[in-house]
User: What shape does this take?
Amino acid sequence: MVGLLAGYYRGWLGEGLMRVTDLFFVVPWLPLMILLVALVGPSLSIIILVIGLTGWTSTARIVRSETLSLRERAFVERARSIGCSDARILYVHILPNVVPLILANTVLTVALAILSEATLSFLGLGDPGRPSWGTMLHFAFSRGATSMGAYWFIVPPGVAIILLVLGFSLVGYSLDEITNPRLRRR
Assistant: This one.
């Protein structure tokens, strides 16, 4: 929504939304996540909230740039000339053209969210009551698995994280190739 509104409405609303996005974009996400989780306490809902607060900015910027491009196209001008409201133009004409881009970027953002949760859990800020690969790595390192040469405590969760993130990244690139006609192979 932030990207759609910032791209469609010029002036103080669009600029204000993008300055808020830029503020979240320039703040380092890992220290911010560590600070928020450490202040509130480790729980799954807090981790989800923190990842959501720090992970939306790239999608908003991409959606804004596509909305700026779509806003100037002829079909939007035609809809505006026959008297369509701004809400109808956004919902009926612009949003369906932006959804494939949102889907492709969301899959890539999920991969970053998985890495963020594993990082927080590895640092000991994850929910201790829920199993996660980051928690497994945290306990392996805190119990000295590396110094004992017990690679079987470290390799499986590490490989699982790598394969899952790689899988989501490949799905995201495939969706981008499918939805973007310029990237399709002939």
